[in-house]
Amino acid sequence: MLVGITGGMGAGKSALAQMLAEFGALRVDADEVAREVAAIPAVIEHLQAAFGRDLLGPDGRLDRRKLGRRALRSDEASQRLEAIMRPPLAAAIERRLAQAVEEADSGVVVFDAPLIYEWGNEGNFDLMVVVDAEEERCMSRVQQRSGLPVCEIRQRMARQMDLKEKKARADLVIDNNEDLAALAAQAKALWAELVGAEQGGGSYDK
Q1: How far apart are the first and last CA of the chain?
Q2: What is the pTM of this model?
Q3: Cβ neighbours for 200, distance < 8 A, ≥ 6 positions apart
Q4: Domain 2-198 has CATH 3.40.50.620
Q5: 148 touches 159 (CB < 8 A)
Q6: 28 φ, ψ to 5°?
Q7: How many CB atoms lie within 10 A of CB 41?
Q8: Would you call 43 helix, strand, or coil by DSSP?
Q9: Backbone angles phi, psi at 3, to 5 degrees
């Protein structure tokens, strides 16, 4: 069973995915795959040509924060970044998911990604889960983990699909406005349903 987990920045999708992984799911993290793709020499060359030769830090690695800021300057810049990253990233994700489906002992693979709906890929999943939280709570979480200024966080959030639309299209919405214990309780209940569905033939009762 392939489960897509998405939501806005700071909503807690990665926290939910990690909890399900601890229960026994095999987790594929889109951000991790993106970091690997962004380390491919040919991709780095394209990014430097489009966004500046100074994108590499002293350690020789891509400065993803600098790249993100430059891509946020305009719609044209954002589209340029997507044109460079999306083809190799989509191919890498497809390979990783196919491998995960073969290797998952539990039969459950969770894909933790922010742009499943934006890319029109929701039809590839047996179940789509959207993690929801109030905007100010999300802002606070992103600030705490990244140190980004509020204006930049809002810019990044604005480039994602409206959360109301994601929730309307989801098979399941997880509320993450409380603490980790409350999220863990929902993760446990979801895991029980996923395992039951997998054992019953792989069809989740939506």
Answers
A1: 13
A2: 0.88
A3: none
A4: no
A5: no
A6: -115, 120
A7: 7
A8: helix
A9: -115, 120
By CB neighbour count within 10 A (0-12 exposed, 13-18 middle, 19+ buried), where does 128 fall? Answer: buried
**Size (the chain), residues:** 206
Span 125-170, pLDDT tens digits: 999 999 999 988 888 898 888 878 888 888 888 778 888 999 999 9
- Give the type of residue at 168: A
Cα separation, 186 vs 16, in Å, equals 9
User: Could you tell me if 50 and 134 are in contact, meaning their C-beta atoms sit under 8 angstroms apart?
Assistant: no
d(CA 149, CA 142): 9
pLDDT of residue 201: 62
d(CA 178, CA 22): 20
Structure-derived torsion over alpha carbons of residues 38, 40, 45, 46, reported in degrees to the nearest 10: -60
